[in-house]
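Handout, tutorial session.
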Amino acid sequence: MRTETKIELAAAVDLGSNSFHMVVARMVQDELAIVDRLRDRVALATGLDAKKRLAPEVQERALTCLRRFGERLRGMSPGQVRAVGTSALRLAKNAREFLEKAEEALGHRIEIVSGSEEARLIYLGVAHDLSDDAGRRLVVDIGGGSTECILGERFEPLRTDSLHMGCVNWSQRFFASGRVDRAAMREARIAAGLEVQTLERAYRRLGWDECVGASGTILAIDEVLRANGWSEGGITAKGLRKLRKRLVELERVETFAEGLAGLAVERAPVLAGGLAILTTLVDGLGIERMTTSQGALREGVLYDLLGRIRHEDVRDRTIRRFMERHAVDLEQASRVQRIALALLAESRAGFGIERETGEQFLSWAAKLHEVGISIAYAGYHHHGAYLVGNAEMPGFSREDQACLATLIEGQRRRFPPPRAAELPPAARGTTLRLCLILRLAVLLARSRAESALPKVAIEARKSGYALRFPDGWLAERPLVQADLEQERQRLREAGYEIEFH
């Protein structure tokens, strides 16, 4: 029998600190075929002022780029596109205000990912670009505002680190005048060494079988080494020393592109900063030879998106590991999840909650609602929210973690939970409505007994909800009735009204 090959389109957008990239790919079964690439050097990191705010001119440059990307993405659904922001947006104090305009320009949601999540996605992109060999690999990626180091085996990262140094911020800090001399290069390498020493011992102890470099800075340096005959089948300490010596001889940044074969003009302003970081990493970690990969963050985002489309979402695996680590009561978590999803099914339209998003976050929150008990029962909703809000959670953006932590904090007692005030306005409304449902599910499952679970009818209203229980069920359960009365009072103080019959 002939089977039909399933083909889908997916796109990844990388809002990097130096350049913005977009990749569009066809998904044929489990393989990706790139059909389009767009790139623009936005230099977002150079637009951060002394107060860590993105200047208006760099914002406009970024928005112009994103409007072009958005035109290419027109007609693609939210599930086919994932856009991520990295170091510069992690640092920017006005990132939230910028993202509102950026999302409008792109036409899709933009996530700011943590350094650890960025490293995981980079490793995923590199791993899919290489042969699936056994053995441990070290992956290094020098971006505009951060440097990621990852140790992994096959497609699984074992350790991820994100260092706050990149080709843009290091070039601005040590070579701002455009002059590259021995003293400035030495200062740049000493500062980089202070960052690298935090992981030297652990990486040397764990070891690796091969080292791979990714992204613009390392690819550019590899190209220069090859073009000038300084490469011996990869990036080596000897080749880097020759390049470093040549930069000092050329002295001025504006002469680099003309004086170095293989160097693109646009890469020249950030080459010295990137080289200082790479030479320090090679010396500090004892890297003998580094090969390169065309795969990087955006390819990793694509493969992560492919997993979500194929229902192999790494976020589900993260939740399971969290439950195991904190010895969650699986039966109670499942009980709360079933009640919450049943309530959502009846109230989703009235509350205006998008189905897939609502089900995902409500399920994750139900599974993790008691993780804080591993610390202490008293205030366990606060403990759980802290754990979820601050842990490394592969697959989750910073905003996703904040929403999930808000749901866990808001499952009982005070409403709205304090964390809700920190959410972006676009996410706050949906999160609070999901929180109303989770609170009710936790309340109804308090007895921790299957036989006590009722069939409850719920009607969503503009500022609250109405419940109808089976005849006589509530009268036989004075504890549930007392809990509902208390919930009604708490919600009334927050401007919500609930009714139950």
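The second record follows below. Compare its token runs with those of the first.
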Amino acid sequence: MKNVKPYIIIAVLVIILTMSFAYSALASKLTLNGVAGIVNGWDVRITNVKVQSASKGCDAGIPQYTNSSVTFNSKLSKPGDEIVYLITIKNAGTIDAVLNNVIFKQKKESEDLVYSTTELSKELNAGDETTFSVKIEYNLDTNKIQKVKTNTITGIIEYVQKNGM
């Protein structure tokens, strides 16, 4: 029995070494190469601005816009006049968006020129578009000489990535 143990140990080692060499000879090295990128991604923008309506005698001008801003040059002549602009926002990206914040401020506080908007879409999924209107009014209830002859409105519409994406 004493003479058999070393031969068994040597046999087991030879078998293990043979299996290791056989595995190495038969194994293949696999290399994975790849490139990942974001295609399109976030792209919420203004795509159109047009005059929807204007009171007789008003000059709505030609609205100027970029992907992220709109400039109006409106001229109203008498109380009760109004101009309505229709603005289109499109989600041209691949990420769904949700409305986070809307802020409209006048440069000068005025009761003579009044700005209002229709409600914006709360969700703007990839590929969808929404429209809303901005109305500029010469206040009909103005009983005095206008204190403000011109005014500037600043609007910020903030869409953010929809949670749960």
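Points raised in discussion: The chain is about 15% helix and 35% strand.
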